[in-house]
Structure to design on (563 residues):
């Protein structure tokens, strides 16, 4: 009776696709180890991952993962110890990732493009004992080494685990393209030596429960100091199950699913929606080590008969504008998911025209493993909304006083579900601030919940601009700017102003020369009310972004404030 009463408060359930359950098994005792072992057995001879044109099967990947676990056990690590990965998408990544988890350890994902300071902060905060790092970034570890508490660094090469082709990749990287800066580090060993060391031992199974931590997933830090979201095995397994419930029936049961993993695996979206979801359904992921190398990216997927791809707005924009991308074989593509940042309508339109598939926008955060909402996969046009809460997920919209707001009224998006983190690592005060008294996670995002259960993002609370008492949401202004045919990228920030409280400032990357400020102002006046029109417009060659393509408004705002 209680559950029926509660469901009347969830209007999205009436709009679920056929066959999608309202709830998943929230009491499952499954762990990520169970998922990995099942994939290695059920799909043993299927390709699991492809890197530089070479594939490993699930059986081969499991063998390598067990060797990683053995090596860490022989180093003396104990269950629950933290082990960091600082690599782009190379074949060693999933092997190391699965190996750490098999040993009962906790994965700490680190952006390899971080500075020494940023990297040291996360390594030391997590207490990671071992770091797997791609040799191209070992010089950063060297720079930070006087401050690090990490005991051992294992140096990985881009071509590791892919045989003769890998040796060629490594030679080219080191000697032809010279992508490996000189480094000198104590307490290091090469990954190949580490695996040889591991082969001298035997794997000791570890008892891992669903309530054990699996990841310390540090938030992007775009709104302040990065914090480690503690994601338990049950959180990740729940989100994989939620993704499967939403996507699998639409994607179809087939043994040859191919996912393009272009977003880095250290990012929570790629980790769950690409790596682990694909393992769950027995597909193959094509690992893209550098998605910014667009010619190589397109060449890699051109004839791969891809069935799934996950992108962010900037990547979709860059790809859809290329002639060679239009020549990719999209005949088997079932869906294209976009997350990580707001997808712009102009980009979605261009993507659909090129691929024949709409962008399916979703929404999530590091703290929610990450998926909270996603659009139906049977839409034919981009909706501009983030979709419906996935099974077993509650979303409410609240005001600053913590009160639920009526449908259609903007407020903070608050989330409750089995995918929500246990808390921030060693930060009880931050954890307390992140949750409401009744257990909802406060996302910091402004959104509205429609009568149809569709959730729409308005903006980040901290990014909202207040102009003479009127709310201006940067996403809306950026979307209008991006629709101008001569605009490639746009970012909008607010800065204090004595007369109006704040002013709207736009940064533009032009698609073609000759675009003028006057042209853009006229465009904005035709599409926006007066107080939303940018007062200042600045043209740039590029905009600052995270490694997954999210524009860093904070950096632009700081420039204006300090300039």
């Amino acid at each position: 009776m209680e559950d029926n009463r509660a469901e009347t408060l969830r209007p999205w359930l009436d709009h679920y696709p056929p066959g999608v359950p309202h709830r998943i098994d929230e009491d499952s005792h499954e762990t990520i180890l169970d998922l990995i072992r099942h994939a290695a057995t059920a799909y043993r001879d299927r390709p699991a991952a492809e890197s530089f044109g070479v594939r490993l099967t699930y059986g081969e990947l499991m063998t390598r993962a067990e060797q990683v676990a053995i090596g860490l056990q022989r180093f003396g690590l104990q269950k629950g110890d933290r082990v960091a990965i600082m690599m782009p998408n190379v074949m060693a990544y999933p092997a190391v990732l699965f190996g750490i988890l098999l040993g009962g350890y906790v994965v700490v994902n680190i952006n390899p493009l971080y500075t020494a300071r940023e990297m040291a902060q996360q390594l030391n905060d997590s207490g990671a004992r071992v770091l797997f790092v791609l040799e191209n970034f070992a010089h950063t570890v060297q720079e930070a080494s006087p401050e690090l508490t990490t005991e051992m660094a294992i140096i990985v090469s881009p071509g590791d685990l892919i045989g003769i082709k890998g040796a060629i990749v490594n030679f080219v990287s080191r000697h032809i393209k010279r992508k490996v800066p000189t480094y000198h580090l104590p307490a290091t060993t090469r990954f190949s030596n580490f695996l040889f060391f591991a082969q001298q031992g035997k794997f000791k199974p570890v008892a891992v429960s669903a309530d054990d931590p699996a990841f310390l997933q540090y938030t992007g830090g775009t709104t302040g100091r990065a914090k480690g979201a503690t994601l338990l095995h049950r959180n990740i397994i729940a989100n994989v199950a939620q993704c499967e419930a939403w996507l699998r029936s639409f994607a179809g049961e087939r043994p040859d699913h191919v996912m393009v993993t272009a977003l880095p695996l250290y990012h929570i979206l790629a980790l769950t929606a690409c790596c682990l979801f694909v393992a769950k359904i027995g597909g193959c992921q094509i690992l893209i080590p550098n998605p910014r190398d667009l010619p190589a990216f397109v060449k890699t997927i051109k004839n791969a008969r891809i069935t799934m791809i996950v992108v962010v707005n900037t990547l979709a924009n860059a790809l859809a504008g290329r002639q060679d991308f239009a020549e990719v074989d999209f005949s088997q593509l079932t869906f294209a998911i976009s997350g990580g940042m707001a997808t712009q309508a102009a980009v979605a339109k261009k993507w659909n025209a090129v691929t024949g598939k709409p962008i399916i926008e979703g929404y999530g955060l590091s703290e929610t493993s990450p998926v909270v909402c996603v659009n139906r996969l049977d839409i034919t046009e981009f909706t501009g909304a983030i979709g419906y809460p996935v099974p077993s997920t509650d979303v409410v919209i609240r005001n600053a006083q913590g009160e639920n707001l009526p449908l259609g009224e903007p407020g903070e998006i608050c989330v409750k579900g089995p995918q929500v983190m246990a808390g921030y690592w060693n930060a009880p005060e931050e954890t307390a601030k992140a949750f409401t008294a009744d257990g909802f996670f406060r996302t910091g995002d402004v959104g509205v919940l429609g009568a149809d259960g569709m959730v729409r993002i308005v903006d980040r609370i901290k990014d909202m601009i207040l102009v003479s008492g009127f709310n201006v949401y940067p996403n809306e202004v950026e979307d209008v700017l991006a629709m101008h045919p001569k605009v490639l990228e746009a970012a909008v920030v607010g800065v204090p102003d004595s007369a109006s409280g704040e002013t709207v400032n736009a940064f533009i990357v032009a698609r073609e020369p000759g675009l003028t400020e006057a042209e853009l102002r006229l465009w904005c006046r035709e599409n926006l009310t007066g107080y939303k029109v940018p007062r200042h417009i600045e043209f740039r060659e590029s905009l600052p972004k995270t490694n997954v393509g999210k524009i860093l408004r904070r950096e632009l705002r700081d420039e204006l404030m300090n300039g």
Observations:
- Residues 24-444 form a domain with the Rossmann fold fold (CATH 3.40.50.12780).
